[in-house]
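Below is how a single chain appears once it has passed through the pipeline. First comes the sequence as given, then the structure the pipeline wrote out for it. We keep one example in the README because the format questions we get most often are answered faster by looking than by reading.
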Amino acid sequence: MPDVTIYTKPGCPYCAAAKEYYSQKGIKYCEIDVYAVEGASEKATKLAGGKAIVPVIVEDGRVTVGFGGG
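Resulting structure:
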């Protein structure tokens, strides 16, 4: 299983940028759509400290909220 998990939602440009960044670096990631996966929205919000924002990126146990580019 990849060491990077990205919680996303459809149409999110920051989510797309995060996925592109990891893809360009050759880093495999697991994408979880917060609308499609039951309980994912709640988990992402909890990981983000109560903020309802995506992407939420979990990399080697470290949580990053949002993505500003590479």
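The domain at 4-65 is CATH 3.40.30.10 (Glutaredoxin).

See the next section for the split statistics.
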